[in-house]
Amino acid sequence: MPKAFDEILDECVDRINHGERLEDCLARYPEHAEELEPLLRAILDTQMAYTFPPSSPAKMAARRRFNAALEGLERRREEKQPLFSRVSGWSRAWVAVAAVLLVALIGYFGLRPVLFPVGPGPLPGPEGNFAFLITDDVNAIGDFQSLNVSISKIGLQLGGEAGRWIELDPEVEVVDLTILQGDKAQEIWRGDVPEGQYTKVFIHVSNVSGVLKETGGPVSVKLPSEKLQIPKSFEVTSDSVTSFVYDLTVIAAGSPQSGIKYILKPEVGRSGAERRFEVIDGKGRGR
Amino acid sequence: MERRSKEATLASLYDEYYDKIARYVFVRLGDRAEAEDLAGEVFLKALESLDSYKERGIPMRAWLFKIAHNLVVDYLRRVAKRKVVPIDTAQVSAELDPQAMAETNVEFARVTKALDQLTLAQRRVIELRFFGALTSEEAGRVLNKSSGAVREMQSAAIRSLRKLLYEES
Description:
The structure holds 2 protein chains of 2 kinds. By secondary structure, chain A is of the alpha+beta class. Chain A has helices spanning about 5-15, 20-30, 35-50, 55-80, 85, 90-110, 110-115; strands at about 130-135, 145-160, 165-170, 175, 185-190, 195-210, 220, 220, 225-235, 240-255, 260-265, 280. The longest helix of chain A has 25 residues, at about 55-80. Chain A is elongated. Chain B is mainly α. Chain B has 2 domains: about 1-90, Rna Polymerase Sigma Factor, Chain: A (Orthogonal Bundle), CATH 1.10.1740.10; about 95-170, Arc Repressor Mutant, subunit A, CATH 1.10.10. Chain B has helices at about 5-30, 30-50, 60-80, 100-115, 120-130, 135-145, 145-165. The longest helix of chain B is centred in the N-terminal third of the chain and has 27 residues, at about 5-30. The radius of gyration of chain B is 17 Å and the shape is globular.
């Protein structure tokens, strides 16, 4: 059965997409050449008008971010592996040394601080049942000498869609994201919040002030919105401290030709109450 | 497919499909810098959502265009809320001489005007077929249409384009 014209045209679009010349397509179907020719020319003219090779710097920057995200995933997977599977590749002598050191550390510091530097778990104390921390996933933060973010409000939604919002005033209002890269996080609020299941979190960003390493001068950093809300479920109970880590990341968009733009946005995948981070203070010192 | 295997497949598509996705987004937004930015975002979003990706439902390269479409829609919604018009019609390279630049801009405006007169469905087909270089089958998966329906829309769109580009201009 002869091919329908729509199918022939479709095949020619595929061939043109793979680099075949218009004349070669016409030669395959001489009986339709007259009808095909202006249609294929319309395709080529349309494609030509939108010729757009992305700039190499932009493509490379995007590739670096993608690779960093892949490496981050791999690193987190390794961290999640049970201890015995991670040490199985070690020599017996090293395992013995590590075991002795671990026992000594546990004896000296106690079990809990070693296993739970941050994160959910029983961390009793007079300071309350909830802590809110800020961290920064590494994207374009390396371009900055400092990136100060002013946070004027924290919001937590208790329950589902119609649940009430609990609003908190941060005790630390300005964080410098350049010292909060990767697994470092700074606590900006701690206290008591109602027990229950929370479903959304927002921070209200009142100001962003960045200084670039390269120029030593200020640079504009765009915000998608002053209120950065993310969907994230977590539970708060009365007998333990829930530490919620909110990940803010700055990304670079554009190219040197068209101009680099910096955008600050939440990283939903790296935010949450189940993550473990190294807690530091506003000067970058460990706590 | 295992998670790691999906990640490897996604990484292997990066070099070829970053350009195609950037071009697809550029046709939708008319802004080079945003197109480059969103193309990178597509791969990060895909990485984040890999657990929900099922190979039998849709080929991964077509799934990337589905993500690109959603990000474009989100972007346009945000821009509309901010009441900022980001369309940068001066899309030609600064290396061109002024006359060539003017000619390219005229051609760009002529083709954009023709594309704008297609139906939305026809335009979506053209964007995926001409600029994303997806097959009709793959474009159909993105648009939830059969490949036959895509071919029909494509034929009608190309005939309209021919008329708009050569007869009415």
